[in-house]
What we know:
Elements lengths: L2 E7 L3 E8 L4 E8 L6 H18 L6 E6 L2 E3 L4 E4 L12 H9 L3 E5 H12 L8 E6 L3 E7 L2 E2 L30 H5 L1 H13 L5 H5 L9 H9 L3 H25 L3 E5 L6 H13 L12 E4 L6 H33 L1
Parallel strand pairs: 1-4, 4-7, 8-11, 11-12
Antiparallel strand pairs: 1-2, 2-3, 5-6, 8-9, 9-10
Helix pairs in contact: 1-2, 3-10, 5-8, 7-8, 8-9
The structure holds zinc ion.
Amino acid sequence: MHYFMGIDLGGTKIKAVVIDEQGTVLMERKTSTHAHLGKEVVITRIVDLVLGVQKAFEYPVSAVGVTVPGVINMKQGTIELMPNFPGEWKGVALEKLLKDILKLPVYMLNDARAATYCEKKFGVARNYNHFVSLIIGTGVGGGIVHDGQLLLGSRGTAGELGHQVVVQNGLLCGCGNRGCLETVASGLAITTSAYRYIKQGIATSMCDMVQGDLNKITPEMVDQAASKGDEAALEIIKSVAAYICKAILNLKAILNPEAVILGGGVAQSDLLVQLIKQELEQHKVLLPDSVGEIDIIQSKFHDLSGAIGAAAWAINLTKKNSNEEKQMIIDVRNSKQR
Ligand SMILES: [Zn+2]
């Protein structure tokens, strides 16, 4: 039996899991990221977590998958952009760095792509060969599975679905563009809207829920208020649903997916998912019949899909590398026999 570790690097927490090849989670740990202390501290914390888990787990792990909440150059194994991490991360060869310290194969993948891969291998998308996922948390991540494979594009950055432009001349996004889906349909967009409503003095139960302390506003709280019929909160969630619907229609026209998987903390809201479905019903387009209907499905992984997906990615690349090695040995033998 082989075991694999998955590390999910987040802005506040680093999560670790050990899984077997069937995706069973055998160990789970987490630690604080301390991102504000800079990259050396963060990298040390990743290493300490891996070593700690390896020590506590009875058997050696074969490889480690690591997610990064940013843009990765997958050909070079380097980080291109980490918008929410202070310090200079551009060009950091995290994959090689960790490999050298840990003396283990290490494979890096964007966090939302890892969550998407997790759904394909062990989650609600196991039976779909063509699907997209929208990971709605503080920001909006995404991933595309085409023909059963994770679509990575020329440099490995395909699937940045949160950065499709849905508002002309909209708000400035962390990526530098304006009007991205992330600016109007993320957890941050929800709390910002609620903040604005309360500041404007609009009558809403959200004001009492945070007892006047606007720092206490969370997307879950807005969702709770909306579910109880608060009009302002409901307007916010409806607006998010409308933009997600717009994004799904774009993806439907471009990719013809069988399903859309909604993951991330914000997508745990049953109200939001219901409103997205209602909105889609109202936008039935007359594309050819072959485009068909799309299944809209909520992820069941809560917050471990990134870590499990990272480990699953390590399984995938370990197998791929071992097959390539076997093929090389066969090729060498054949050439010697000739
Ligand atoms: Zn953007």
